[in-house]
Specification:
With 70 residues, this protein is of the alpha+beta class. Helices cover 14% and strands 14% of the residues. It is built from 1 helix and 3 strands; from the N terminus they run ββαβ. The chain has a 3-stranded antiparallel β-sheet with strand order 2-1-3. The longest helix has 10 residues. Bound molecules: zinc ion. Zinc ion binds next to loops. It comes from Vibrio agarivorans. This is C2H2-type domain-containing protein.
């Protein structure tokens, strides 16, 4: 048995990502949205806040193409 540590290029873990509006760690159970331009994530609640107070625009890139993330 080898004892080498393997480093894999793993996809980004959701737990390492944060809501771009609130900075909260992403929780998929809250519903996630993603900016289709710069790919930051938002919780559904933050997405609603953007719709209400930021003209529906991404806080990072000002794109308005923010869609549900599956
Ligand atoms: Zn964006």
């Amino acid at each position: 048995m080898g004892n080498k540590i393997q480093f894999n290029n793993q996809p980004q873990n959701l737990a390492e990502l944060n809501d771009a509006l609130t900075g909260a760690a992403l929780d998929k159970s809250l519903g996630l949205y993603q900016c289709q331009n710069c790919f930051v994530h938002y919780h559904a609640e933050s997405h609603q806040a953007l719709q209400a107070s930021n003209n529906g625009q991404c806080v990072a890139c000002e794109s308005s193409t923010i869609e549900p993330d599956h």
